[in-house]
Specification:
Nucleoside Triphosphate Pyrophosphohydrolase; alpha+beta; 9 strands; 189 residues
């Protein structure tokens, strides 16, 4: 059987830094989800055709766009998908300014998975005035958690890797893949 071709996808890691350390917004996927059921994740999902038509106030920084995708058009669509999915899954509507996004990681699900994604994890600093997230059919138990609290939740391996990278100030972006069924993490240059 041939491996399923990965779909482009993007997640948004909203980060707050305060006296308690680093906080992130996460929610739990439904137990009946076809992909990653009953685990905590960052808001995100697959790129849709409309994401290619987004008109941001400011585009992704060149370095971020180059690390995110080979094509500048795809990189902008990924950023649009991250913001759109965050709005759909949390009710938080973020300004269409892509310049504040940083690339934390790129990940491709294992070849044997029946549902595959080539996901980009974008980070964004979230201000205190962002508002309160609201649960949706796609994400429940939404809330801000410290990295330590988040690491104690049920997670998939890439989510854990992204959280651990947030513990290291100025951690470089990384690529997360699988070789012989085992996760492999390498710097993304």
């Amino acid at each position: 059987m041939r491996p399923v071709r990965p779909r482009h996808a993007a997640s948004l890691v909203l980060v707050r830094r305060d006296g308690d350390g680093v906080g992130v917004l996460m929610g739990r996927r439904p137990a009946r989800s076809a992909f990653a059921p009953d685990v905590f994740v960052f808001p995100g999902g697959a790129v849709e055709p409309g994401d290619y038509e987004a008109s941001p106030v400011a585009p992704l920084a060149d370095a971020c766009a180059k690390r995110a995708a080979a094509s500048p058009r795809l990189a902008q669509a990924l950023a649009a998908a991250a913001l759109r999915e965050t709005a759909e899954e949390t009710g938080l509507v973020l300004p269409g300014d892509f310049s504040g996004l940083t690339l934390l990681a790129r990940a491709i699900t294992p070849t044997q998975s029946p549902i595959r994604f080539h996901a980009r994890f974008f980070g964004m600093n979230a201000g205190e005035d962002l508002g309160d997230p609201a649960d949706s059919p796609e994400l429940a138990d939404l809330g801000w958690r410290t990295v330590r609290q988040a690491l104690a939740l049920p997670l998939i391996d890439i989510t854990e890797a992204v959280l651990r990278s947030l513990e290291v100030p100025s951690a470089p972006p990384f690529r997360f893949t699988y070789r012989s069924g085992r996760p492999v993490q390498t710097p993304l240059l």
